[in-house]
Amino acid sequence: MSNDQFIKTLDENDENIFQFTSEYVGSGHPDKLADQISDSILDACLKIGIERCAIETAIFQNNVVIFGECGGGPLKNITNNSNEHFLEELINIKKIVQDILKNCGYDDERTTDWRSVNVKCHVIKQSENIEQAVLHGQEAETTENQAAGDQGIMFGYATNETKELMPLTLILARDLCKMIENLRQKFAFLRSDCKSQVTVNYFKQNGALIPLSVKLIVLSVHHAKNLTSFRDVFNEEILRLSSNDKRTRYDNLEHLNDMDLLRLFLKLQIQTFVLSKYEVISKNARFLIEPSGLFEIGGPMADSGLTGRKTICDGYGGFGSSGGGAFSGKDWTKVDRTGAYAARWIAVSLIKAGFCKRVNIQLAYVIGLEDVVSIFVDTYGTGSKSDSELTRIIRRNFDLKPNAIANALDLKKIKFETFSVWGHFGRENVPWEVPKKLKFEKN
């Protein structure tokens, strides 16, 4: 039965039909700038042998402040009060910040400018109490039994509604922002700060989710001030993109104002490059593009940015659960990151093994303890085995000590900055997206 035929069999008042919405942000959104800076500094620290980091970034207008803690490696003999600029002497932090701002197009001398940005760093050495808890008081900092660097709960989610095993709402919202990232390389009127939001009508079938239709597409994009000078570009692109659509022709565009031309340009780009592979379920989607009107002032000039404020974008778009801990700026001893990656790995493995169609995994850790203290599984009623049986399978197949996770998922070598923009999950060529072959007792 086709999707169209299936939809026709449903009653719109069916209690199993519901709407769900996810959002995403672009590379130049202030919070994502902060994530990128934190992860880039983390990578630079790890490269020179610093072993443990928790780096936070705040950005507003043309000012960036870095703060946090580092430990291990070349920092062994540094005390918190001996040199407050020790990290700046080891790493060119200002250049890291400048490179990220430059890559995101922030080069306006009147606003945020990579060339003149003010950067301040206030990073201290990691607390000796935390250090001892992580290292178990051992002298050798390379010990294989390093413990969790904090307490906390982490979640991993997976759903078979897309090939990425991710919610369609989040995949579409992310693709919209990726589209803007690609378009801004070609069209000078687009900026890297953008936000998207996608609402999908779902049918819940015995706990599994079936996307029925895309209901609403929302996109806000920071743009150049003088859109009038780009009207010829708008006209050319609109005519080109609509040339194969016999249902709609845009031969007379002179009556449209600048903002409406931009909206039409973006709508056609969305239909061509994002929704084309979901044409059946998106043909009746409603569009709200630049709903606030002008978006001439954007990026850090309009809003402050802070590391870790986009945890739902970084996770599953509101599906599953969130442990609340951010990922960026944290090395593998921080279970906020390591545990979340492991939980996703487990979720992907369970679905690929055919044990369920949808699953949410919770892991819990305690500072100073090596192993996970609890595992929770919820298959939403889609499991071929009970949730308690799946918990036993997880314990049998996954070593969830932080060091073991780091080795299995290559977290001691990976470049963390790679994941600070376009998400940590549902990506190709990532270790935690590759299912583990599970050993289990057959009934």
Q: How would you describe this structure to a colleague?
A:
Belongs to the AdoMet synthase family. It is an enzyme of class 2 (transferase). The chain is α+β, with helices and mostly antiparallel strands and 443 residues long. It folds into 3 domains: 3-23 and 181-289, GMP Synthetase, Chain A, domain 3; 30-135, 2-Layer Sandwich (GMP Synthetase, Chain A, domain 3); 152-159 and 305-433, GMP Synthetase, Chain A, domain 3, CATH 3.30.300.10. It contains 13 helices and 11 strands. The chain has helices spanning 3-8, 30-47, 86-90, 93-103, 128-135, 168-183, 231-242, 258-273, 279-282, 311-314, 335-352, 387-397, 402-408; strands spanning 17-25, 52-60, 63-71, 118-125, 152-159, 190-205, 208-223, 286-289, 305-306, 358-365, 374-378. It has a 4-stranded mixed sheet with strand order 1-6-7-8. Strands 4-3-2-9 form a 4-stranded mixed sheet. A hairpin with a 2-residue loop joins strand 6 (190-205) and strand 7. The longest helix is centred in the first third of the chain and has 18 residues, at 30-47. The chain is flat, with a radius of gyration of 24 Å. The protein starts with a helix and ends in a 35-residue tail after the last helix. Mean pLDDT is 92; it is low at 137-141.
